[in-house]
Write a structure and sequence with these properties.
Length: about 525
């Protein structure tokens, strides 16, 4: 009997927009079910005035109720307009598209970045992405679209550039070359929790400085190896379909005329880059002056209500931190226009706007995705599911009798799991610090090292959850550059492609912190893993 050919069922792909809509409905139904089951948790916080533990009860909120549905409907516009990735992405794209439209980014990349090797370019992108967490999550909005463009100009797959930038920010989040916004948000919780054990505890803002500098270099090197050795070969080259059908075309050219055109073009490009360089230097000097306190007209970007300079720079109300995306966009805009004037690539303002507008034509689906994602994130946060699960994990950890390395590793794992549902480092540390810090101090581990435990657990899984707000930029741009529109990058496919990075970087983080603890290396000036 002859073997009949098997029928292959065609795979059906949901667009990410549809998936997030379904997930939103799932969260609403799940919140109703968990509320019916009275899912709740109690976690301890430290009273700032008395230094005593105070229990806080949190329960899953029912969004399937009358009040819940009223919240969803009435807050839809607010959730969208206040969604941080939306404003950051829009501001960064305005600057990048203007700089691209004038030819500035292409010329700069072709003349300078093409000199870098593939590994050199990847390391540069990952390292910049890593240290970008100095200022919250601006790296996602700026570096993902920029890396895609630079890789494309360099004849590399722009999807690889998107993955490189995203992984660099997400899986090394919180390590940098200087103390930044993460220190400001975490240190108060660490200090208050440490005072439960030792009333004389002092924790400086620089207490993790040595660790974060070294870790930023190590993770950038490991990340480069993962991208180049594992992910890049799987993704392959980027070639548009119309390029496959091209045949060889011949034409008669005047070599002397062509050479003259190239010389003239090169001359104008050099002049354009000089104009852009001078403009960038002037802007940089103005920004630096605006960051210096107590000079005539200076301190514009600082929160002068704070006494400590780092808090003036990276505090909750810092104008520098809040306006950083706009400042970067402004540099791209003015440097791009300066290049266009110098290179004569633009003739008037209408041409600048027209060229920039063309680059927004393919972003319609991204903005729809931003709207749907903003509702999903807001509804999930309102449900309190992430907070309740995090509190359960913190309470479970507090009931375990652990010391030394087992305490460090288990704490990292618990924080990493909680991070899948609660991505804010400060929100997790609010719940975990009264548990982790005292346990560490009783095990002769310093509270400063306990804060590193939070950093590591947070970094390990930050990029591996769709509940990360900036995940929308990642998956959105993957689909912008996806050539197979009938096979969109779904959540599953997006996570699958970065799984090697997630797994190897998780192991790397564990090895770094275990090695640091065993060797007893300083984690900051005069600060060590043990007391």
């Amino acid at each position: 009997m002859k073997n009949r050919p098997r029928l292959k069922l065609k795979k059906f792909y949901f667009h990410p927009i549809t998936i997030f809509l379904l997930l939103t409905l799932l969260v609403i139904v799940l919140s109703g079910l968990l509320n019916l089951l009275q899912a709740q948790a109690t976690y301890n916080t430290v009273n700032v005035n008395t230094n005593d533990l105070e229990p806080t009860l949190i329960a899953v909120e029912n969004l399937l109720s009358y009040d819940g549905l009223k919240y969803i409907i009435s807050n839809a516009a607010k959730n969208f307009l206040s969604f941080a990735p939306l404003s950051m992405l829009l501001m960064s794209l305005i600057g990048i598209t203007i700089a691209e439209g004038t030819g500035f980014i292409e010329t700069l990349t072709r003349r300078h970045l093409k000199k870098l090797s593939k590994s050199g370019l990847t390391f540069t992108v990952i390292f910049i992405a890593t240290i970008s967490s100095l200022i919250n999550e601006v790296g996602y909005a700026i570096l993902i679209p920029l890396a895609a463009l630079i890789y494309f100009i360099n004849n590399r797959n722009p999807i690889l550039g998107i993955i490189t930038a995203y992984c660099g920010v997400a899986f090394s989040y919180g390590v940098s070359i200087f103390v930044g916004s993460m220190e400001i948000s975490l240190i108060n919780y660490t200090k208050q929790a440490a005072l439960l054990i030792d009333e004389n505890t002092h924790i400086a803002l620089t207490s993790n400085l040595i660790f974060i500098i070294v870790a930023s270099i190590i993770t950038s090197i490991v990340g480069t190896l993962i991208i180049e050795r594992i992910i890049a070969p799987k993704i392959g080259k980027y070639k548009k379909e119309d390029e496959f059908s091209k045949t060889e075309q011949y034409r008669i050219v005047n070599l002397e005329e062509e050479e003259q055109k190239e010389i003239e073009k090169e001359k104008y490009e050099k002049r354009g880059l000089q104009f852009a360089l001078v403009t960038s230097i002037i802007l940089l000097l103005i920004f630096i002056y605006a960051l210096i306190p107590n000079l005539p007209g200076s301190g514009l970007l600082l929160d002068m209500k704070e006494k400590i300079y780092v808090k003036q720079l990276f505090g909750e109300n810092s104008y520098f931190q809040d306006g950083f995306t706009f400042l970067v966009s402004l540099v791209f805009i003015l440097a791009g226009i300066a290049y266009g004037i110098g290179s004569k690539s633009i003739k008037n303002d209408k041409e600048i706007i027209e060229n920039a507008s063309k680059n927004f034509q393919n972003l319609g689906s991204v903005f729809i995705l931003l709207f749907v994602m903003s509702q999903f994130i807001a509804i999930f946060r309102k449900s309190n599911i992430g907070m309740v699960v995090t509190a359960w994990l913190a309470n479970l950890l507090g009931h375990l009798s652990l010391n030394g390395l087992p305490l460090i590793i288990v704490s990292i794992i618990f924080i990493a799991v909680a991070n899948l549902l609660l991505t804010s480092p400060s929100s997790k540390w609010l719940i975990f610090s009264p548990v982790v810090v005292p346990m560490c101090m009783q095990a002769n581990i310093s509270p400063q090292f306990a804060q590193i435990i939070l950093r590591v657990g947070d970094s390990m899984t930050k990029g591996y959850t769709p509940l990360l707000a900036s995940f929308v930029i990642f998956i959105g741009y993957l689909n912008v550059y996806n050539l197979h529109k009938d096979k969109p990058f779904t959540i599953h496919k997006s996570l699958e492609i970065i799984t090697p990075y997630f797994l190897i970087m998780s192991i790397t983080w564990i090895l770094i912190i275990v090695g640091w603890y065993i060797l007893g290396l300083p984690i900051g000036p005069g600060v060590y893993p043990t007391l």
